[in-house]
Amino acid sequence: MPHGSCSPLEAPPSAFALTGDPGRPVRGLAALPPPLSGPAIVCGAPPGCSLRWSLLAPPGCAVRVNGLPLATGFRALLDGDEIRFGSSLALFTATEVPRVVPFPGGPLPVRCLRCRSVIASRSPALRCPGSGCGLWFHQSADLPCFTGPAERPFSTCASCVLPAALSPSFPWTPEEP
Ligand SMILES: [Zn+2]
Ligand SMILES: [Zn+2]
Predict the structure, then answer these.
(1) pLDDT value for 8
(2) Ramachandran category for residue 63: left, alpha or beta (phi over 0 → left; psi -120 to 50 → alpha)
């Protein structure tokens, strides 16, 4: 099992240093320092693109992905890649974490997929980050349309296979929507 699990970051930067510390395997960077002093994970594309995150490492750096050294100093990270550095082991996941946000609204009314009523602008809502899904739900104590009520939680999104939980037990992810 990977160690070094940590909870999703609140306001994630788009570059992270690998620390080698199993207690805290990644640390957000305000900017990518030139030159790199150690391995770093950087975001190079907007949300929705595949292969958004890459691992960069300076020459001779002892970082391994899925057991192999990073020969070229660069690798586009794929879902499930295992990154080992120092005494830390981290698992990369491209899956974004379901997150409640004020509903941004739009030119047309949007109906919640679960209860079919219109989601009011700025009300607590959740856009399913499941692959190819992206549908909106109410998500509050009164209208837990994504997760279901606490006593009878739904197992998955009403439209896709993403677990209907706000904190799925991903090892870590460098990003939230
Ligand atoms: Zn609803
Ligand atoms: Zn979904």
Answers:
(1) 39
(2) beta
155 Cα to the center of ligand 1, angstroms: 16
CA distance 113 to 108: 15
What residues of the chain score a pLDDT lower than 50? 1-12, 168-172, 176-177
Ligand 2 geometric centre to CA of 176 (Å): 15
C-alpha 13 to ligand 2 mean position (Å)? 25
- For the entire predicted model, the pTM comes to 0.55
CB count in 10 Å sphere of residue 13: 16
Strand partners, 29: 15
Distance in angstroms (rounded) separating the CA atoms of residues 120 and 124: 9
- Spatial neighbors of 58 by CB under 8 A, at least 6 apart, are 35, 36, 37, 38, 39, 73
Question: Would you give the distance in Å from CA 172 to the centre of its chain?
Answer: 7
